[in-house]
Amino acid sequence: MSETSEKFHFVMVHGFSHGAWCWYKIRSLLEASDHKVSCIDLKGSGIDPSDPNTIFTFQDYNKPLINLLSNLPQNQKVILVGHSSGGQSLTYAIHKFANKIRMAIYVGATMLKHGMQGDPDLSMYGDVCKKIYGLGADQPATSMMIKEEFQRKILYHLSSKEDSTLAVMLMRPGPLRPLVGLRFTEGVKAESVPRVYIKTLQDRVLKREQQEAMVKRWPPSLVFALESDHCPFFSTPTLLFAFLLKAAASVNAAT
Description:
By secondary structure, the chain is an alpha/beta fold.
């Protein structure tokens, strides 16, 4: 029996400053194998019209994901795939909707059972972040993004020039307020959802040792590793696609 014999519904959750657009290669590969794929824009991201400087809660930021899961028929389950800070959206979802999630796959993503992690340390690259103060200069920043001249070096250094150019054109400032002091406290059924972690070994945002520490602290059922930059959907899409299918197949093997 091949790994693609059963068809799954994958829900792809982007990371900070990105959008549904970043999954275009993975979506094409999955759909070519007859899987269903939903790529969502979190609020204030991608083509969502909301101003990221007006988004203040994590629940509001995740409204598109919440709506998708809330509207699923009772007998349907999805495989969530989250990248980077999108991992926190996955954790939030499995605390709230464990009965609707077949598996959660973290791709170079934040995987913390109870939330809380500071901004990635990019200080070695200099002053790389542009912050926006939507409530006034005397208030904390409301959104942020990596300055254009640093984006390829930090995010896409192993990706094609075409993909990094596309990303530079599409990235938006991500809302900061929803991620400040983020805590997950409820949802005892969260442990019933199998988790898989896909490490991005050449990652310059979420360093390899940080990923390994999260895996050790909250062990998933499976761990894969990619020799990719922070964005394997661009730099190693075929291998990422293969790991997603292996992860999905492992659920059936375990049941």
